[in-house]
Write a structure and sequence with these properties.
CATH superfamily of the domain at 124-300: Histidine kinase-like ATPase, C-terminal domain
Shape: elongated
Distance between the termini: 134 Å
CATH topology of the domain at 124-300: Heat Shock Protein 90
Radius of gyration: 31 Å
Helix content: 40-55%
CATH architecture of the domain at 124-300: 2-Layer Sandwich
Number of strands: 13
Structural class: alpha/beta
Low-confidence stretches: 239-251, 291-320, 322-334
Strand order of the largest sheet: 8-10-9-11-12-13
Largest sheet: 6 strands, mixed
Mean pLDDT: 75
CATH class of the domain at 124-300: Alpha Beta
Number of helices: 14
C-alpha cells in the first residue's frame, strides 16, 4: 500500500514537472518570438533614423540649393522669353535656345547629384582617405553657400582612417551649416582644414576622451557670433538653438556626436562670443593601406562636379564694367521711357539674361558682377545712371549696403532690389537704406522693364 502511495506521489511530481517544463518551454518560445519582433522593430527604427539623418544632411542646406535653382530658372525663363521675340531670326533663336539648354543641364545635374547623395545606401566603415571625400563634399557646400560667405580650405595629405563616406559627409555638411547660420549679417569666412596630429597626453573630448595616439584632424572654423559657456555646454543636445529668435534648431552637433560614436572618433569645440567657433574632429589613423584613394563610393559622391566652371561668374575683367549697347527695340517697347540702368548681380548667367532682355526693351545697361566695382563706377559718373538694379546676397557687399553707399553719393536715384529670397533682408531697413522697389526672382525681364518704366515715369512726374 505504501508503495502505491509513493508511486502515486512520484507520478504526480513527474506530471507536475512535465507540465511545468512544457509551460516553461512555451514561455521561452514566446520570449524568443518577442525578442525577434523587438529586434526587427529596432532594426526598422535604426533604418528610419539613418534615413532621417540623410534627409537632415541635405535638408539643412535646402534653402541655398533653392537659391541656385532659382537663379537657373531665371536664366531658363529669361532666354525662353527672348527666344519668342527672335523667332523670325533662326540664328538668334538658336543662340537663345542653346543658353536655355546649358542652364537646363546644370539644373538637372544639380538635382541629380543631390538626389544621389540623399538616396545613397549606407556604407560600412572601411579604410578611407579623407582628402578626396572632404574635397568632393566641399564642392557641393561651396556651390550652395551664399556668395557672401567665403569658403577657404587647406587639405593636407593624410593617412587612412576607418570611416564611411556618408558619415564624413554628414559631419562636414552639419558643421558648415552651423557656421553659415552663425555669420553676422549672412557674411563671413569658413575655414576647413585637414591634417595629421599626434596626441601626446589624454584629452577630454566628446563623445569620449582622446587617448594618446595619431589622428586625422578635420577642423571647421568660422568668424561668426560665437557662443557663451552656457550654450557651449549644451551644444550636443538635440534642438538647442543659439539664434536670437530660437528659429534655428541645433540638431547638427548631436548628429556629429552620434557619427563619431560609431567611428570611435571625438570632437573638441572652442568658441568665444564675437570671435567665432572652431570644431575639431579627430579620427584615429590606421595602419591599413587604401588601395584606391578615389574608389567607387567617392565616384558616386562627386557632388555637383565642375558646377562652378559651368556657372561662369566673371568671364570679363572684374575691374571693368560690361557695357551693352541698346539693341534694336522690340515691337512692344514703343511706349518705353529711355533710361540707363546699372545692373549688379554676382551670378553672371542671371545678369546676362536680364541685360539682354532689358536691351530688347530699349534700355541701355551697364552690368557689373562685383558690387565694389559697381560702386566705383557709379562714384565716377553718378549722373549717367537713371536706375540701379541690384541683387541682395553678393560677396563683399550686400545689395542693401550697396544701396546705402550709392545714396550717400546721390540720394535721388531709384534702386530696385532683385533677389531670390524675401527673408534675406529686413524690408524696413532696406527702405531706410534707399531701396525703392523689390522684385523677386525668377521674374521676367518684362516685369523688370515695366517696373523701371513706372519708376522713371514717377520720377519725371515728380520733377514736373
Amino acid at each position: 500500500m505504501q508503495f502505491l502511495v509513493t508511486a502515486g506521489v512520484f507520478g504526480l511530481v513527474a506530471l507536475a514537472l512535465a507540465i511545468g517544463w512544457r509551460r516553461a518551454r512555451q514561455r521561452v518560445i514566446q520570449l524568443q518570438r518577442r525578442e525577434q519582433r523587438l529586434d526587427n522593430r529596432l532594426l526598422e527604427l535604426t533604418n528610419q533614423l539613418k534615413q532621417a539623418h540623410r534627409m537632415e544632411a541635405v535638408g539643412i542646406l535646402a534653402g541655398s540649393i533653392a537659391n541656385n535653382l532659382n537663379n537657373l530658372l531665371a536664366v531658363i525663363l529669361g532666354h525662353t522669353r527672348i527666344a519668342t521675340d527672335v523667332v523670325r531670326d533662326p540664328a538668334a533663336l538658336m543662340d537663345e535656345l542653346d543658353k536655355v539648354m546649358q542652364a537646363g543641364h546644370v539644373a538637372s545635374d544639380l538635382v541629380k547629384e543631390i538626389s544621389d547623395f540623399y538616396l545613397q545606401a549606407d556604407q560600412v566603415r572601411k579604410p578611407t582617405d579623407l582628402g578626396p571625400v572632404v574635397n568632393d563634399t566641399l564642392k557641393l557646400i561651396r556651390d550652395i553657400l551664399p556668395s557672401s560667405i567665403e569658403l577657404k580650405t587647406d587639405l593636407k595629405r593624410c593617412g587612412p582612417v576607418l570611416a564611411s563616406v556618408t558619415g564624413i559627409q554628414q559631419i562636414l555638411m552639419n558643421l558648415c551649416s552651423n557656421s553659415m547660420h552663425a555669420m553676422y549679417r549672412g557674411s563671413g569666412v569658413i575655414d576647413v582644414t585637414l591634417k595629421e596630429e599626434k596626441i601626446s597626453s589624454r584629452k577630454a573630448a566628446t563623445p569620449r576622451d582622446l587617448p594618446v595616439g595619431s589622428y586625422v584632424k578635420l577642423s571647421v572654423k568660422d568668424d561668426g557670433r560665437g557662443m557663451n559657456k552656457e550654450t557651449l555646454d549644451r551644444i550636443f543636445e538635440s534642438y538647442v538653438s543659439n539664434a536670437a529668435d530660437g528659429s534655428k534648431m541645433g540638431i547638427g552637433l548631436s548628429t556629429v556626436s552620434r557619427i563619431l560614436e560609431e567611428h570611435r572618433g571625438a570632437t573638441l569645440v572652442h568658441s568665444q562670443v564675437g570671435r567665432g567657433t572652431t570644431v575639431d574632429i579627430y579620427l584615429p589613423l590606421i595602419a591599413w593601406q587604401v588601395e584606391d584613394p578615389v574608389g567607387p563610393e567617392i565616384a558616386k559622391q562627386e557632388v555637383v562636379r565642375e558646377l562652378s566652371s559651368r556657372l561662369p561668374r566673371h568671364s570679363h575683367a572684374e575691374n571693368e564694367p560690361l557695357v551693352l549697347p541698346v539693341a534694336q527695340a522690340a515691337d512692344d517697347t514703343a511706349d518705353q521711357v529711355a533710361a540707363t540702368v546699372l545692373l549688379v548681380d554676382d551670378e553672371e548667367m542671371v545678369a546676362q539674361v536680364m541685360v539682354r532682355g532689358l536691351q530688347r526693351m530699349g534700355y541701355r545697361v551697364v552690368m557689373h558682377t562685383d558690387s565694389r566695382t559697381a560702386l566705383a563706377d557709379f562714384s565716377e559718373t553718378p549722373a549717367v545712371f537713371d536706375v540701379v538694379v541690384t541683387d541682395q546676397i553678393m560677396p563683399h557687399m550686400s545689395g542693401v549696403r550697396l544701396t546705402r553707399k550709392i545714396h550717400e553719393i546721390r540720394s535721388d536715384i531709384p534702386v530696385v532690389l532683385f533677389t531670390g529670397f524675401r527673408d534675406s533682408f529686413n524690408e524696413e531697413q532696406a527702405r531706410e537704406a534707399g531701396v525703392t522697389e523689390f522684385l523677386l526672382k525668377p521674374s521676367s525681364h518684362r516685369d523688370l522693364a515695366d517696373l523701371i518704366r513706372r519708376l522713371m515715369l514717377r520720377k519725371m512726374s515728380g520733377r514736373g
